[in-house]
Amino acid sequence: MFQVRIHGRGGQGVVTAAELLSVAAFSEGRHAQAFPTFGSERTGAPVTAFCRIDDREIRLREPISEPDALIVQDPTLLHQIDLFAGLGEDGYLLINTGRTFAELGLDDLVDRMRLERILTVPATEIARRQLGRPLPNAALLGSFAAFTRVVSLDSVAAAITEKFAGEIGKKNVAAAQAAHAFAEERLKVPARA
Amino acid sequence: MRRQLEGSVAVAEAVTRCRPEVVSAYPISPQTHIVEGVSDLIRTGELEGCEYLMVESEFAAMSAAIGASAAGARAYTATASQGLLYMVEALYNAAGLGLPIVMTVANRAIGAPINIWNDHSDSMSQRDSGWIQLYAESNQEAVDLHVQAFKLAEEVSLPVMVCMDGFVLTHAYEAVDVPTQAQVDAFLPPFEPRQVLDPEDPVTIGAMVGPEAFTEVRYLMHAKQMQALDVVPEIASEFAAAFGRTSGGLLRSYRSADAETIVVALGSVLGTIEEVVDELREQGVKIGALGVKCFRPYPLDEVRAALSQATRVVVLEKAFAVGVGAIVGQNVRLALSGLPVEFHDVVGGLGGRAITRRSLHRLLAEVLEGRLEPGRLTFLDLDHALVERELRRTRDHRRSGPHAENILRDLGVVAAGSH
Amino acid sequence: MAQQQIKFYQVGSFAVGNRLLDPEQRTVQSRPERSNTLTSGHRACQGCGEALGARYVLDAAMRATGGRLIAANATGCLEVFSTPYPESSWQLPWLHSLFGNAPAVASGIAAALKAKGRTDIRVIGQGGDGGTMDIGFACLSGMFERNDDVLYVCYDNEAYMNTGVQRSSATPPAARTANTKPVGAEPGNPFGQGKSAPLIAMAHEIPYVATATVAELHDLEYKIERAMALRGARYVHVFVPCPLGWGCPSSETIRIARLAKETGIFPVFEAEHGEVVGVSKIRRQVPVQEYLRLQRRYAHLFGDPPRTDVIAQIQTRADRNIRRFGLLDEEAA
Fold first, then answer.
1. Do B390 and B416 fall into the same domain?
2. Chain A interface includes B117 (CB < 8 A)
3. Would the N or C end of chain B have less CB density within 10 A of its end CB?
């Protein structure tokens, strides 16, 4: 089982990201479960969403306390909440930011982790370019696909198109593709600096 | 066809395919996506011949369903928590009148303190209302139970509530096979009421019944529910034959044929319990699980049969009776009376606190090692220190303040100082 | 000679003149073929205004709908006295659910009929002042706001009569009830804001709102007929004296109802979509004492010393109604 935990704020599409990820995995013939934690419907409040992917039926019904992968959609959460609880040394870490891990003050954390499993991606900027809006979720999923290979970019794109019709779907797919390419580039030279 | 979709949306689709004629809707978390989904399907024309009433309260929602059902229409609504309580008078009325209304209860805690997350206190509070209560373990089962519920309700002339865990199931995306319209039509015939408001053949419905006959009328309601103990499995079999999968029924046993310890529970937590059972079985522990699918009517004989070989029974429930103890546990004990079983009542998952694999392993270790005193009510993951501090506060100060605020402050959730 | 069973029905004084009227102008009550929807044998008190009102209303509605009518009834006197176990005096499909939900139940019935394509069958919701204006108020407002195709009739006897005459939001100022006794500085029900259900109904801008009394049969029947010719949410508020609760002789029900109108205490009017379109004029304004004096619930105003101050306040309100609704016949003024 592969467990993904996504952190962000209300209005950033965190819940949708988890859902799209589950749809992508499902389309590849796997079992997937996605769900959020809930506060009241409030833009800007911290939101966490979860996605489990497995080759057998998923029966567990609990939040993911030991994620195999962590996606941080909003770096302003970094020193406010314990985002990294349960993330092991072999886990994947993907942060939406234009800064480096060092600049984010996360040296201690990433020092323990595997170089090829940590990545920063300026997903908001990519989204702004492709979508005209700072909604980073599709882009992050594109990077996620490149980075973890748990789902393919094609599956992510298909899930996006299924959810968002017309122009919006196309632009989100473009954002995912751009971020995917970005990630692939970066992974050739794993950066810590 | 299996699709990956949100539980609420799947249920909305299933309900519309049952061709309700009147749907009354009032929003409350976490059921909102269901009634929204039904509204969309009516607007897009997928469901025709259905009136969607946006009412002013849950009390009105059930009342409108009562009027509609009495006039011969297949009626549906959905609610949770506070909403369910607000319609209690109408719940009893619907059951007493024998109207086959189907309602989704997206299980959520009841306040005070206000809490929007999942537990079973809402539906448990209405276990004596005369409504049939079915509990879904997964979104697939939730979908299937709704289809079965309409058939069941109309067969026995009693209203049915399908309980599914709020947020945990309603807002979870997972693979579900929603039956097609053709499949549902083949399984569920049009509603043929036993009593109906019809100018061609006028009847008086809802008259007062005095001491001379009230007992008999109420007995009949009990008898009807008991009859349902036969109808529920029948419909589940018919469903299995028609749709090729097991859903519903009275109980579901998991690896408990030779189990010495059996964990009993309702709803989605069974999934996590089954994972734990598998893990413990790998370690050689003879443990199993029993899922109660139909809580009202209560399948006493079946529960006894399922548990009688066990040495230990652990009932894990998401509600409790204040001042007394367990609810489901009490019902299970009833089934096991006279049998020498070691009994543990455990309350967990209140107000949305997750019941985790880790907690369950800890709990079961205590049980198996004999460190948990049987026959006492245990609150899973209770922070005893927190509770003690609050009790001490109330002992030491007359004006100790609201419990909720004090505890939240203690936890650091609420700022201690003024702004 | 062939024998024919004739059942004799009591009809109001006004109807006595019916044999001189054009057959088309006769009241529903005067017709032997009337539905008798609330048939004899019910257990209402002698002189019950509500029983009279309900019979008038439902027979008129049955005639207007060709007998295609379903009724939803709130808990209350009407429901209780009309269905004494194991009998029922209703001759139409009738549903009693709860105290506070009659408008919502009626909405549900209307929705069912619409879903089934049977909008030829009409729906009437009915209840007393307690069930309509207090506990059922939210449901009533919801029904209005959605413009559900229901005629709701409130039989207003100005208190919770079935439970022993307790005060409701319809209880007029100074009236004695079980919990507004004539003791203390302010005897009887306090002078509050009042709650005019017809005006509130008008504020919802529904197709039809009307008030009526059991004293004017033609007027009441006409209003029901008018209401049934329309679709959408309609509200009729009927003033029904209660001999037991008001402490008046059972033979005076109709007279007291007439006095309520003639004093201006109970304005009789019609409104459509929030605007008054017709009023029933007062032929000769009667001082409120003449109305109050007949009822023991106001007896404390005529004691020793009499509460002329309270009576004056009541008079002021009656005068205001007359002004507000234009109730006086200009020629007579």
1. yes
2. yes
3. C
